[in-house]
Write a structure and sequence with these properties.
Layout lengths: L13 H6 L2 E4 L2 E4 L4 H10 L10 H19 L4 H11 L2 E8 L2 E8 L5 H16 L4 E3 L8 E3 L12 H18 L2
Antiparallel strand pairs: 1-2, 3-4, 5-6
Length: about 180
Amino acid sequence: MTVIDPRPLTGEPVSLDLLNTRWNHEGVRRDLLDDTEGLAVWLAAHGLDDRFTADATTLRHTLAARDALAALVDRPGDPEATARVDAVLGHGRIRATLTPEGPGERPEFADPAWGPGWTAARDYLDLLRTHPDRIRACAHEACILHFFDTSRNGTRRWCSMAACGNRAKAMRHYARTKDH
């Protein structure tokens, strides 16, 4: 049985998508990672379900990684938040490989339950390395989602123009017209 991903924003880089496993829906905070079934949905969304098991230990470690990433996104450069993400990264490493197809890399974990969280933390490093200024939080005050701005000029403000962008426009329009 395939479970549909209920989140309003998917398809972001794995690090930001892990943060987006929490969202607000009609004023209520939702969390895809409330249980292992939600973890299975998230793992499948990133093609990680063939390498990692959606069990209680993996869920616990993935939540620890999400909390560490959230702290760092909220407080870039904060030493404590940086140390928390670094601690997650300490649970894995990249092993250089050579195969008949050529050189490559493969992640290795002493405890595979850290794999999904480590993968997200490693992805965040890649975003920081390439375009740290493109890591954004949605500008709508009621939204807690994050996105990687891929717009040409780097001025995207909303997680979704159809949702948060239109809500903001409607609120501005209402504020202008209610006084007339």
